[in-house]
């Protein structure tokens, strides 16, 4: 009895030590893991294009063609709207201190108009209206998020290198997906090898649809805000503010709020009614996104509860910075497929048969 207990204890200790060593190794390789996560998300996003082209051309050629199409779209879009966006953003940066000053004066006038005289209330309002402190806080928070992302990738040069490596890895994953999957599932005994192999297609589909949906929603939102701002008379920065809103919208939940702040600050300088119309514009567009576009283009394909998506964004930001907010949610969506197919459905089936 004592010998068997000793054997069990030694085997348990060996397993525990192995797990700890694996965790330490993964921590030291976290930069490579992030690169692999980004590459997997890119591969899942481009997979439909490659699968379609494969009907007519070899798969490796389809991968090259898919990347050429994406590069052509990005370069073409940059050439068409890039100069205008750059000019507007440069002008916006130059005028932004003036807009902040106007915002502060407007807020002080509102305080005086409402006749607030309570010392504690005035002290609280002064702190809220301390634009210099708010700007410093925003800059520090942005730097912290950026440094969190760069810390994983070992600086700016490392970040650029990892981005290039992610693109190359995603191309390799797309071109040799069948061989990679077969080689991976051979590590598992039967029937788990077949079950795991069956998960790759739905996982890839759900991860890809998540990113495709977010890009499409962000594109629609950016165009709608640009047109809306032009109609409301903010022609000077309409395209630049629309691009900012579109890019920030790629981050679920918090991105739309961040994207609306510059436009609202500019609107304050145009007058009270313009501010109210711009605020109404963002509220209407955000409600359309929340209740129409997201459920139609993202939620219906991802099938992940909004709470879990929110937790994925928060956890991704805490661990990986801005990069985490973009790549962790699709991984949670893919993990949901595995959990559903390998645990929840078999358990419900067993419960039904037993009953």
TrEMBL record:
Q: Which InterPro entries match?
A: AI-2E-like
| Protein family (similarity comment) | Belongs to the autoinducer-2 exporter (AI-2E) (TC 2.A.86) family.
- Residue ranges of the TM segments: 7-27, 33-53, 60-81, 155-175, 215-232, 238-258, 265-288, 308-339
Q: Which organism is it from?
A: Cyanobacterium stanieri LEGE 03274
The record's section on Pfam families has: AI-2E_transport (PF01594)
Q: Which UniProt keywords apply?
A: Membrane, Transmembrane, Transmembrane helix
Superkingdom of this protein's organism: Bacteria
Question: What PANTHER family does this protein's entry cite?
Answer: TRANSMEMBRANE PROTEIN (PTHR21716), TRANSPORT PROTEIN YDBI-RELATED (PTHR21716:SF62)
Topology term for the membrane:
Multi-pass membrane protein
Which cell locations does it reside in? Answer: Membrane
Q: Give the chief site where it resides.
A: membrane
Coiled coil feature spans: none
Name listed for the protein in its UniProt record: AI-2E family transporter
| Keyword RNA-binding attached | no
